[in-house]
Write a structure and sequence with these properties.
With 770 residues, the chain is of the alpha+beta class. 50% of the residues lie in helices and 22% in strands. The strands form four sheets. Strands 1, 2, 3, 4, 5, 6 and 7 form a seven-stranded antiparallel β-sheet that branches.
Length: 770
């Protein structure tokens, strides 16, 4: 069975029990191998000491480095401010920070002008804020630097985009200073999209670390020293070694143990070596990983081995007493610490338990002033509870139907708040869509019921077109809550006089038997018939309807004219007038109904015509019987006529052959272009038929203005059916020939002139004889 323990109990149980177990094992082991283990214990003490010292130094540096990084991170919102406003704000913040942190030797920053000034287009140039103390007086300065280019040192600073600590350096002596202090700088760059923007730095002296170094003396004759990442002495009892490379201080050790390399790699290592006096020393190194930098420093403790053994013997005698006292003291401290840690956690846990079961009210808050992560945890929980209370109130408002209730998100990452707002918006949209859907359903139901109702009317009255028209117009006016209506039917019995006849009219719950004929294109009804499109008017001038619509009576506010169209053929016009403006779905309903009416009218008309045709066919059958005898007689006469026609055709062919042999025959179209020519003419002219066809009568002729007018009149007379005769001289093969030409218009079966026939005879010999 698994035992459940509180955090406080776990801390007390595990740490105290672990310490006791370790102590018992250590004492037993020492007792068993006292002499052998004395050295190793002392070495462990040394190693622990150096690690604790490393942690102490790390804690001090981390605290200050964390502040630098925090400031740097906070300043990433610089784009939210104007440049001058931002620079003034950070200067005030620096002043406050520097005043309240006397351990900071100097505070400075550097902002790239290209990042904060849109008008600066150079890759160098910066503005710097500096704070320092001069004889206890805080001084500050703001200045522009690197306007002509970055210095080598600042270029190295810009190249490092991660938080970093500088190598030790001596402060510059200015003013009344007589001692140059060993310094280092803690740098926190501000980077945006991989690009350097600014850096915030604390300059700190290594005096405070030197005090720690000087106080580390675990054994008589032992001492500690501090080494930077690149192997410079940053702290040492002998101040002459300050900022000296370790290769110069411990050249042999550097050569054999690779001290600088191990420090750069952040290793914990140790070795034994002889000092200048031949005394053997044990030296242990512990890395100091400063915050998130990748340039660890190291602290070392050097102890003479003979002192280690003396202390080991002494420690063995007092270890038991000291251990017991240490365990008791540690237990007391652990008890106090665990209580301070677990009490706030217990309060937070109680709140979380209430939240886990859905309990929520305004009193659920925790007030802590511990200044640590637990306080941040409590504040975050309080904020979450406040947010949940607001969300619960918002949800209740939505549940009560108040969909317009305002709600403010905790942040852009407030997923629950966004979900509630999305839910509210979805409910609002759903409500609007539901109203719209119901309205659309009501319109569809109204239209479907109307179509079904009029479908019955169309089926019941499809044998009488007048009753059908009357029922349609009366029912439609009432169904639309209109005031007037008329149904015009196409009358095309006389193809020369097609018009639309008002077959039925309805006004104010009574029929109007009005005899009105409307021609296509006449007024609105005629226009609708021509355009085959619905006409809908709401702005109707006074008396306009009487002039254009074909309906009398009061002037309506709305007029709807719909063609009864079947396969692009308009069979009639439906006209509705109302004092109420028709809605879109009512217009669409009338248009659909018009299609059904048109189809029914077409069927009725076909039925009527079919009846008429049946009557006519019966009458014609009787007439045909009487005509058969007449046709038989006519056939006999036709046969005689055909025989006569064949004889005359043979004579005509002989005449045409004689004409082609003795004359020159040419056929022209009405514009004077040759359509046909006989071989006699082609042989005379020495031309082929392809060369002649399509040429104009006036080819190679030149006219004066008078001649041109006479020539045009000549062809105009021919086109009107007048025969023309002319005598023409033509030079053929250098011989002048004289022709007598007759132009005869040829008519078709309808009596229209469709071509001109020219017959030309050579009368040259006759002219010469005369």
């Amino acid at each position: 069975m698994k035992i459940k323990l509180k955090i406080q109990q776990k801390i007390q149980l595990f740490i105290i029990s672990s310490s006791i177990i370790i102590y018992i094992i250590a004492v037993g082991y020492i007792s068993y191998k006292a002499r052998k283990m004395a050295y190793n214990d002392a070495v462990k003490i040394m190693n622990n000491q150096v690690q604790e010292s490393a942690k102490d130094i790390k804690a001090r540096l981390d605290a200050q480095f964390s502040a630098v990084v925090a400031i740097s991170n906070a300043f990433k919102v610089y784009k939210d401010f104007e440049k001058d406003e931002w620079q003034n704000l950070i200067h005030k913040m620096y002043a406050h920070i520097f005043k309240n942190n006397p351990d900071i030797y100097a505070l400075w920053d550097s902002w790239e002008l290209s990042a904060i000034d849109p008008e600066w287009d150079k890759p160098y140039g910066r503005i710097s804020h500096s704070f320092w103390r001069d004889n206890g007086i805080i001084k500050d300065n703001v200045e522009l630097r690197s306007l002509e280019g970055d210095s080598e040192l600042y270029a190295e600073t810009k190249a490092n985009l991660e938080p970093n600590i500088n190598e030790p350096y001596f402060d510059v002596l200015t003013g009344d200073k007589t001692v140059s202090l060993l310094m280092t700088s803690l740098n926190a760059p501000i980077v945006e999209n991989g690009k350097y923007v600014a850096v915030v730095s604390f300059d700190i002296t290594l005096v405070q670390l030197q005090e720690i170094i000087e106080n580390i003396k675990p054994y008589e004759g032992s001492y500690a020293f501090l080494i930077s990442n690149k192997g410079a002495i940053a702290g040492h009892p002998n101040k002459d070694f300050f900022n000296q490379p370790i290769i110069e201080v411990f050249p042999e050790d550097e050569k054999s143990e690779h001290i600088s390399e191990n420090i750069r790699e952040g290793k914990h290592f140790s070795y034994t070596t002889l000092d200048e006096e031949g005394v053997k020393h044990y030296i242990t190194y512990a890395p100091i990983h400063i915050l998130n930098t990748n340039t660890p420093w190291s602290i070392a403790i050097s102890v003479p081995e003979n002192v280690i053994m003396q202390e080991a013997n002494k420690n063995f005698r007092i270890s038991i007493l000291v251990g017991i006292a240490g365990i008791l003291l540690m237990s007391l401290v652990i008890l106090i610490i665990s209580k301070n840690i677990t009490n706030p956690i217990t309060q937070i846990t109680e709140l979380l338990k209430k939240l886990s079961i859905g309990h929520l009210d305004e009193k659920m808050r925790i007030k802590l002033d511990t200044g640590d992560e637990i306080e941040e945890m409590a504040n975050a929980l309080n904020k979450s509870i406040d947010g949940l209370n607001k969300k619960a109130d918002f949800a209740n408002q939505i549940g009560n139907g108040n969909l317009n209730h305002d709600f403010e998100l905790l942040s852009d990452e407030d997923i629950l708040g966004k979900s509630l707002i999305d839910m509210r918006n979805s409910l609002v949209k759903a409500e609007e869509e539901d109203k719209k859907r119901k309205k659309e359903d009501e319109k569809r139901r109204w239209a479907n019921e109307g179509l079904a109702r009029f479908g019955d009317i169309l089926r019941q009255n499809n044998d009488n077109i007048e009753n059908l028209a009357t029922e349609i117009i009366m029912s439609l006016v009432k169904y639309l809550n209109a005031n007037q209506g008329g149904l015009f039917i196409l009358n095309d019995n006389d193809k020369e006089n097609v018009y639309f006849e008002l077959l039925s009219a309805y006004a104010f719950d009574r029929r109007k038997y009005l005899q009105k004929h409307i021609e296509p294109g006449e007024g609105l009804v005629g226009t609708c018939a021509i355009e085959k499109k619905t006409i809908f008017m709401t702005d109707i001038p006074q008396d306009y309807i009487e002039i254009t619509s074909g309906l009398g009576g009061a002037n309506p506010n709305c007029l709807l004219i719909v063609p009864l169209k079947l396969e692009e053929e308009v069979l009639g016009i439906l006209e509705i007038a109302s004092f109420n403006v028709f809605e879109k779905h009512e217009i669409e309903f009338v248009e659909k109904l018009a299609e059904s009416i048109a189809s029914t009218l077409s069927s009725v008309r076909i039925n009527l015509k079919t009846s008429e045709l049946l009557e006519k066919s019966q009458q014609q059958a009787e007439e045909m019987a009487a005509q058969e005898e007449e046709m038989r007689q006519n056939m006999e006469e036709l046969q005689a006529t055909q025989e006569e026609s064949s004889r005359k055709s043979a004579e005509m062919e002989g005449l045409i052959e004689a004409l082609n042999t003795s004359s020159y025959v040419i056929e022209y179209d009405l514009d004077g272009y040759i359509q046909n020519v006989n071989d006699n003419y082609l042989n005379l002219m020495g031309l082929s038929k392809d060369e002649v066809l399509g040429t104009h009568h006036s080819l190679n002729m030149e006219f004066s203005e008078k001649q041109k007018a006479e020539y045009d009149k000549f062809w105009k007379d021919l086109r009107t059916g007048n025969v023309k005769k002319e005598t023409t001289k033509v030079k053929v093969n250098n011989k002048e020939l004289v022709f007598a030409e007759t132009y005869t218009p040829i008519r078709n079966a309808e009596g229209e002139v469709f071509k001109i026939l020219k017959i030309s005879n050579n009368i040259t010999d006759f002219k010469e004889q005369k």
